[in-house]
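Entry 14. Ran structure prediction on the chain below.
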Amino acid sequence: MPKDQLNEAGEQEGRLAERHKVPADVSLRERKEIWMYFVKYRDRANEWRWTYHGSNGEPIAASSEGYVREEACDRSIELVKQSANAPVRRR
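Output, structure tokens:
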């Protein structure tokens, strides 16, 4: 990779780390893991929901329902985390 592209990639990495409040001493691999994150929030009905954000900061998944109890929302997030190795089935 040419030097100017490496510099540009490094600068982009730095901007993403800054945007996501990642400490500078965190490795690139650890940063990528940190950059994917869940956000919990209350909706207009005052129920808990979550969104899952990719490394670009854009949401890539969202809860399909609102939860009255925050613990139920947390459980839903844990189920998504545990399903990382779930098979993909084609319809």
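The first strand starts at residue 37 and ends at 42. Will compare against last week's run tomorrow.
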